[in-house]
From TrEMBL:
The organism of origin for this protein: Catenulispora yoronensis
Protein name according to UniProt: SCO5389 family protein
Pfam families: KH_NucS_shadow
Length: 131
């Protein structure tokens, strides 16, 4: 299970729309490593040089942390919530390398390069083969 959902949030979902802030809080509580990593990378991107196109993480996480990243970034709802919350476009490689780009970056050469097959191949390493 990806998220530990409070009964009040479950009731919201059963009758209609879910409060975005409550959903984000659920993600933060359920997937703290993934949430905090995206939060940190977004802060780095937004606080830095406005010409900087992205911020990324190359630190190898533990198995539990890697699982959180996979659950967060494999879910369109969770990924979208993180992108809206932190005003970023997320990209993901090798179950550990997360990058945040500025909104609208999907059309940029840098984003297309990061998410290309070539970059995926060049970012391989034996320690991440079974992630």
């Amino acid at each position: 299970m990806s998220l530990d959902v409070a009964p009040t949030l479950l009731r919201q979902a059963e009758v209609g729309d879910v409060d975005e802030a409550e959903f984000a809080a659920t993600v933060a509580a359920s997937l703290p490593y993934a949430y905090t990593l995206v939060e940190k990378l977004a802060a780095d991107l937004h606080a830095g040089d406005p010409a900087r196109e992205f911020a990324d993480n190359r630190t190898a996480p533990t198995e539990a942390e890697r699982g959180q990243l996979l659950r967060a970034l494999a879910s369109d709802a969770i990924r979208g919530s993180l992108e809206r919350r932190f005003a970023v476009k997320l990209a993901f490689q090798n179950c550990h390398r997360v990058a945040v780009f500025r909104p609208g970056a999907a059309d940029s050469r840098t984003y297309r390069t990061f998410t290309s097959e070539r970059s995926q191949i060049l970012n391989q390493s034996p320690e991440f083969r079974d992630c």
